[in-house]
Amino acid sequence: MRALLFVLLGVVCGAAATAHAEAPLVIEETFLPVIIKGQPYRLEAMLVKEAGSTQRLPIALITHGQAREVEKREAVQARRSLQLARDFARRGWLAVVVVRRGFGRSGGKAAYVLRACRDGDVGTPLDDQTDDLEAALKVIGQRIDADPSTAIAFGASAGGAAVLNLAARSPEGLKAVVNMSGGLRFFPRPDGQPASCDAEVMIPFFAGLGKRSRLPTLWLYAENDTFFPGNYVRRLHEAYVAAGGQTEFHMFDPVGEDGHFMMGHVDGMLRWLPALDRFLRTNGLRTYDPAPITAAISALNPGPEVRAVARRYEGRATEKALAISRSNKTAHAQFGGTDLAKIEANALEMCAKVAKEPCRPFLRNFELVTPGR
Question: How far is the C-alpha of 345 from the C-alpha of 361, rounded, in Å?
Fold first, then answer.
C-alpha cells in the first residue's frame, strides 16, 4: 500500500488533565507478542491515543495491503498508517496499526505471502492473515487503556479482505469492520507457473463471507480502482449481500490517477472520511458530534462560500483548524500537520489575506473555539 500523502514523521507526546480534541497524541511503537496456532510471534505495531485519557478506549485495529513484490512487503511499516491512526485517535479510539506476519519487521515466515491460489482455495491464505488480526485483537484487549468490549477493524486492499474475513469469525468485542478498496489479486506461482485462480473465484468466496457475518460493514471503493474495477466490486458486493451480509456500500467517482490509493489522497479523504463518520454514528460507535458545529455555523448566517469550506472541513485530515472572517463571509481551513497551533495560525493568516479583514479561530479539529481562547 502506498504511503499516505499526509504521513506524519514527528512523534507528539505529552500529558493533559483531560482528553479532548486539543490534547497531544501519545504514539507508541512496539511489538505485540501473540500466539497463533500454538506458536509465538512478534507483530510490529503502533498505538496512538489522545494524552490524558483516564478511561478504557475502544479499539480501532488497522491493517495494510499486500504488494506483489517481496521487497515492498519487507518495507511495510506501521508508521505509514500514522495519519489514519491519528484520525481514529482524534475520534476517541485507541488506534492500533498491526503489521501482519511476513511483512516489515513482524516475525514469522508466513507461507501465505508467496502461496499462489490453487483450485479456488482463497480461504486458506486469507485465514493465515486473519489469524494475525484476531491474535492481535486479543492481546490489545488485555491493555489497561483498551476496552475489549468494543472494537472495529479497518483494512485496505488485501487488508480489506482480511477484515471482512475477521467479521465472518465475529470475535468477541468486534462491532464493525471497514473495508477500503478490499480484495485479493492472483499472480503467477513462485515456480513460474500461471496462477490457477482468477478473479471470478472471489465471487463465491465473498458470498461465503456474507453468509457467515452478521456485523455491519462499511465498503469504500472508487470507480477508477485499477486493482478492483467498479463493475467487479459491485458483483462482490451483490454476492456478499445476497448471502446475508450487512453493508453500507460506497462507490465513489474517480479519485486521482488510481482510486485504489484513495485512502491518502486529498480528494479521496473528502469522500470517505465523512462516510466513515456517518457509519460510526449509525452504529453507535465513537466519533465526534457534529450537532454543535452545525448549529454554530448556522448561527453565523454564513454565505455559500463559508458553508462549502465547512463541508469540506469534514473530510480533512487532522490536525486541522478552521478560521472565519469577522464579517462571516470568508473561511479558510488548514490541515494535515502535527502542530495544531501552527496550523491554526496559518489558517488565520490565509483567511485574513483573502477576506481583507481580521479572522478568528472557529474550530480546532472537532472542537468549537470559545472566544478569547
Answer: 9
Which residues does 273 contact at the CB level (< 8 Å), separation at least 6?
A: 87, 314, 315, 316, 317
Q: Residue 201 is placed in which grid cell?
A: 473465484
pLDDT digits (tens, 9 = 90+) for 316-360: 999 999 999 999 999 999 998 889 999 999 999 999 999 999 999
> What are the C-alpha distances in Å from 305 to residues 98, 300, 302, 355?
40, 13, 8, 12
Going across the sheet that includes 359-364, the strands are: 331-335, 320-325, 359-364, 367-368
H or E stretch at 238: helix 230-242
- The candidate with the shortest Cα–Cα distance to 307, out of 291, 296, 316, is 296
Pair 61, 87: CB distance under 8 Å: no
- As a whole number of angstroms, the distance between CA 286 and CA 50 comes to 14
Judged by DSSP in three states, 179 sits in strand
Question: What confidence tens digit (pLDDT) does each residue in 147-166 have?
Answer: 999 999 999 999 999 999 99
> Cis peptide leading into 319, omega within 30 of 0?
yes
Strand partners, 94: 59
Domains and CATH numbers, the chain: 25-282 (3.40.50.1820), 291-368 (no CATH)
Record the cell numbers describing residue 209, joined without a space.
463471507
DSSP code per residue over 247-301: EEEEEESP-SS-GGGGGG-HHHHHHHHHHHHHHHHHTT------HHHHHHHHHT-
**Considering only CA atoms, which of 131, 160, 139, 129 is closest in space to residue 94?**
139
d(CA 185, CA 337): 34
d(CA 3, CA 152): 22
Rounded Cα distance between 356 and 336, Å, is 25
pTM of the model: 0.89
